[in-house]
Design brief:
Helix content is about 25%, strand content about 20%. It is α+β, with helices and mostly antiparallel strands. Strands 4-5-8-6-7 form a 5-stranded antiparallel β-sheet. The protein has a 4-stranded antiparallel β-sheet with strand order 9-10-11-12. It has a 3-stranded parallel β-sheet with strand order 1-3-2, with helices on one face. It is globular and about 60 Å long. GO terms for molecular function: FAD binding; oxidoreductase activity.
Length: about 325
Amino acid sequence: MIPFTITQAPSTHEAIQAAAAGGRYIAGGTTLIDLMREEVERPDRLIDINALPLKHIRAEGPDLIIGALARMSEVAVHPDTRRLHPVIGEALIEGASPQLRNMASMGGNLLQRVRCPYFRMLDAPCNKRIPGSGCSAIDGLNIGHAILGTSDQCAATHPSDVAVALVALEATMRVQGPQGERTFPVEELYRLPGDTPHLEHTLLPGELIVEIRVPGLSYSRRARYLKVRDRASYEFALIAAAAVIDLDGGVIREARLAVGGAGTRPWRLRAVEQALKGKRLERATLEAAARTAVEGARPLSGNQYKVELLPRTIVRALELAGEIA
């Protein structure tokens, strides 16, 4: 690990000033410290933001408000999370070990880096680590890589589970930076790799995630998060799906769907949602709608199974959501 300094920010304003001058925010550090140890990330100045008043979790009417420094474990079990949006708690519990959930912040979880093994191998070409060096995964080991939103430069999936649930629920985030404050959908935080896979998010220099707002839905309790992975705990998704449905006598009035493990960012499935609207919650209908999810898919040599696994996971997540009273 290269030498670095760390200072504690006493206020949001001072944290933003320090970041604008070249510092890096750190909260739980569950991703950044690992990457610094491996010298994939090499910041020389860290700004400890744990003293900032951003740990709140509360309801505002039907909406759930989550401070960026709230820990994953606290959000997962909070009464307002369980009452308003239990699918968020499901995604958080599936997302990491208990030790990591106790440390990791919500903002840090949304900004975690990819888990492509080549990203962490300093002797392997990786366009995320060194732009223009190449992508080892394209012709290498790519069983866990994306089939949607890929480019010739990168096919790494985004690893966050809770981001998938937040995208399905159309959550927004509030950020503050040197140019002031702005609010935008969580979905718009993430960039497609295109020709610049090293640019992973849309935050401007010095911007700090302050808060996440999840809008209330009358049917948000009829939701499930289903994660398919190689082992039962502490493993990233091969495919995951967050499904939220509004049922009326067995007919789907509305559906919200997003998936992880399939795309280079948390992937909203609007075409599937539209195909389900007004249809009965029956397997044949769900299967027909779910097949639209893989239109335009670009599988690699090792992940072609995801073209079949993705629709199956969507169908099962919808069925599980439909079973909730």
